[in-house]
Design brief:
Growth Hormone, Chain: A, 0% strand
């Protein structure tokens, strides 16, 4: 660490780290904590595996819609207000999920949770920018690295925590945990996050609710068709295509769009960053929601044992991010991380009902490399590629593309596994993820603009 790094770290208010990190992890931890609870939930409600995957997709669709909306609201009203609103919704969703009498009420709770947890990340990115600009700092590399480590690796520790919660309090505990998490975020945000005088200056402008509805319809149609591919659901695909086309036309013509697709005009590097984030998310969450249920259904492990198998990527991801977070090798990091993801997919092809535990752990150790590199590198790239006055919206859009990958992964897992998390289904999922990873690697190698990027320095 250079003396400049030390001075910048000292000048950036440390009290802001706790609310920023807690708010940012609410979504990824809820994305993964439920993975070990899907089998117990299915048993409790008599639902097959492809139905319980609605709990996954519901959160991702809500978050994919909510992220750009939260980003726009953060840019308009400021990070603190949106952070507090999101924390409140998170707590409400925890109560609703813990008391859910059936699967579909639980799905509704996950929708509320998706909207509640999507405010933390764009609020954090906006706050970093505001504080840095007001104090005359460039973006602190240490703060961005810590944020990336927290967001990316917490998704991996989620299954371990989920397995522990299931053993201690049943599957409902994986929803109830959001009550104390939401209260803690509310308290920290209220106490430590600053309010700026210019927040709310544009509050009189109207939001593009037409764009919100069209975007939600397009995503929902794609999800329905992806989870139920076949002639019977072609109407859902038709709705998605029509709504998507209407959304594109609407956003290009309105003066204050829901998703400002014009920020991508002439900015191919930023578009490539969104595409890489989507591909990385598809593989990462495909692993979590494919491999984890298979550990229980195909390999026969208990929820807590399955969670412990997935504990190792947390430590590996932290170490990798700490070692490479400050080094000016964005392109190299992307190449190494993508190759590691491909190797993980290959390893899944050799998994079976008698695979030894050491081999399972070996695959998860390797998963820690892309967990620590890909999100960090894409976040650093976006920080330089996005317009400073639209950092909240651009950050929200980055998360939207990540959720598009997660939605695709849950749909593919549903189609691959069907009613049971079987070994043949795992292999089908692995082949698809391998194809996506190879395509992502080709895009990284072809993108020469990455060679000019350097991670933020104070």
């Amino acid at each position: 660490m250079t003396s400049t790094d030390v001075r910048a770290a000292e000048r950036f208010p440390r009290r802001l780290l706790a609310p920023m990190m807690l708010g940012s992890v609410l979504n990824p931890i809820n994305s993964s904590i439920l993975s070990v609870a899907l089998v117990p939930i299915g048993e409790a409600f008599g639902a097959p595996h492809d139905q319980t995957l609605w709990l996954v997709s519901a959160l991702y669709v809500a978050a994919a819609v909510g992220q750009p909306l939260a980003g726009r609201l953060v840019d308009r009203y400021g990070p603190k207000r949106l952070f507090l609103a999101g924390a409140t919704l998170t707590g409400v969703a925890g109560v609703l999920g813990a008391l859910a009498p059936n699967l579909w009420v639980l799905v509704a709770a996950r929708v509320v949770l998706g909207f509640g947890t999507c405010a933390g990340y764009p609020s954090a990115m906006s706050l970093i920018r505001k504080v840095s600009d007001r104090r005359g700092l460039a973006s602190p590399a240490g703060v961005l690295t810590a944020l990336s480590v927290t967001v990316q690796t917490i998704a991996v520790i989620g299954p371990t925590l989920g397995g522990l919660l299931v053993d201690l309090g049943g599957w409902r505990a994986t929803l109830a945990v959001n009550v104390p998490l939401g209260l803690a975020a509310l308290a920290l945000g209220w106490a430590y996050m600053p309010s700026y005088a210019d927040e709310g200056a544009d509050a009189g402008e109207r939001l593009d609710w037409t764009g919100v509805v069209l975007f939600a319809a397009a995503l929902s149609g794609l999800m329905l068709f992806g989870m139920n591919p076949g002639p019977a659901w072609l109407c859902a695909l038709g709705v998605a295509l029509v709504a998507g086309a209407g959304f594109a036309v609407r956003e290009l013509r309105t003066g204050d769009p829901f998703v400002d697709v014009r920020v991508l005009k002439g900015n191919l590097p930023l578009l490539a960053t969104y595409g890489r984030a989507m591909a990385a998310s598809l593989v990462s969450y495909g692993f979590i929601y494919g491999f984890t249920p298979w550990l229980e259904g195909g390999r026969g492990l208990s929820p807590s044992a399955a969670g412990l198998v997935l504990l190792t990527p947390f430590g590996v991801g932290v170490v990798v991010s700490a070692l490479f977070g400050r080094r000016p090798y964005v392109r190299v990091n992307l190449v190494v991380g993508t190759v590691a993801q491909a190797l993980v997919c290959v390893a899944l092809l050799f998994m079976g009902g008698t695979t030894p535990v050491w081999a399972l752990i070996g695959a998860t150790v390797l998963l820690g490399v892309p967990q620590g590199l890909l999100s960090l590198s894409n976040q650093n790239a976006l920080y330089f590629q996005a317009r400073p006055d639209a950092i909240g919206a651009s950050s929200g859009l980055l998360r939207t593309f990540q959720y598009l990958g997660a939605i695709a992964s849950s749909a593919i897992a549903s189609a691959a596994f069907g009613a049971d998390a079987s070994t043949p289904g795992l292999h089908t999922l692995a082949w698809f993820m391998l194809a996506v990873t190879v395509l992502a690697l080709v895009v990284v190698l072809a993108d020469r603009s990455l060679a000019r990027l350097r991670p933020p320095r104070p």
